[in-house]
Specification:
With about 140 residues, the protein is an all-alpha fold. It contains 8 helices and 2 strands, in the order H-H-H-H-H-H-H-H-E-E.
Length: about 140
């Protein structure tokens, strides 16, 4: 019985690919709008150009916008607040990200440390930041 249930779930998942949030297949207009938003995310240059992508319902489009080479520190700081980890990881890999943003992505609680924490730590270590035995960044004395 369990085997049948697994097959049924795989069939349902495969049928759902390419559908919009209402469970219907995307129309040509919806696909064209998605492609337009991808192009705009890649072409954004000014901070104001990124504004629509902070709330875009498509996670992949937000990810493309976060990886845009023209994204500045303020834009990346806002993308670091995204609810999806892939967008946050894209922020950690961006050359323009500020150290304070990376430090904010670190988790104090070891049980909550995941992909984002480790990506931020890798980036900070590459930038010369030291970490203590608890896995927290050691701030240099000013």
């Amino acid at each position: 019985m369990t085997e049948r249930r697994g097959q049924a779930q795989r069939i349902i998942r495969s049928r759902d690919r390419g559908k919009n949030e209402m469970g219907k297949r995307k129309t040509a207009e919806e696909r064209a709008d998605e492609q337009r938003r991808y192009a705009l995310a890649r072409a954004a240059h000014l901070d104001a150009d990124f504004e629509p992508f902070f709330v875009d319902p498509n996670q992949a489009i937000r990810n493309v916008a976060a990886m845009n080479p023209a994204a500045g520190t303020a834009v990346l700081d806002r993308f670091a607040e995204d609810r999806f980890w892939s967008v946050k990881v894209a922020v950690t890999e961006h050359p323009n990200v500020a150290r304070i943003t990376l430090l904010r992505l670190l988790e104090r609680d070891p049980s909550r440390r995941g992909v984002v924490h480790h990506a931020a730590r890798r980036r900070l270590e590459a930038d010369g930041v030291a970490f203590d035995d608890d896995g927290l960044a050691i701030e240099p004395a000013l």
